Amino acid sequence: MTGVVLAIETSCDETASAVVDGRRILSSIVASQAELHSVYGGVVPEVAARHHLTTVNAVVDEALREAGVSLNDIARIAVTRRPGLIGALLVGVATAKALAYATGKDLVMVDHLHGHIAAVWLEPLSLDAPFVALTASGGHTRIDLVDDYATPQLLGQTLDDAAGEAIDKGARLLGIPYPGGPGLEALAREGDPTAFDFPVGLRGRGPGLDFSYAGVKTALLYVARDLGDEGTTARRADLAASYQEAIVRPLADRLMRAAEIHGVPAVSIGGGVAANGRLRHLVEEGAASRGLRVAIPDRSLCTDNAAMIGAAAAFSPAIPWPRYVGEDAIATAPPGGIAA
Ligand code: KG4
Ligand code: ZN
Question: Model confidence over 3-12: pLDDT tens digits?
Answer without folding.
Answer: 999 999 999 9
